[in-house]
Amino acid sequence: MCNRNIYERYEFRSIKQEEADQAVAIEHTCFPPNEACSEQHMKARIAKAPELFLVAVDKETGRLAGLLNGLSTEEEAFRDDYFTDENLYNPDGKNVMLLGLDVLPEYRKQGLARELVTQYASRERKNGRCTLVLTCLEHRVEMYERMGFVNRGMADSTWGGEAWHEMSLKIE
Hints:
Elements: H1 4-9, E1 10-14, H2 20-30, H3 39-48, E2 53-58, E3 64-73, H4 81-84, E4 95-103, H5 112-126, E5 131-136, H6 141-146, E6 150-154, E7 165-170
Helix pairs in contact: 2-3
């Protein structure tokens, strides 16, 4: 379903290197310190795989309102190393481990997160990917299920000292 208001208000595209500081700031706004990606790792990920970042740019301000990012791989199960080791990136990988869906508070409850996921899935399908995989906390499971993700159960993840669910979305 096309949400014309979203397309009128936002530009969707890959991240630019000069937007790395904005991406870091958004990450640190959207996630608590124990879960947020560090500045070092976020910037390394942007440098290594900018094409696996999808950003929503507020056309009025020119600033990032939200982003979704990941790393492609041949692996099928999520592991915490993806958060900290951009060298696990395989440009030809058939799966994408999603590492962060971030929408600034003032842009929430407008369908932006859903649109980022929808556009990301469509783009990566065209790039020959098969599956998107993510981890989320219990209170986010239902949200991702509404987006089409399937709950695989508890993840083999202890990122930030939390218990995570692993979820996947077939996009092939």
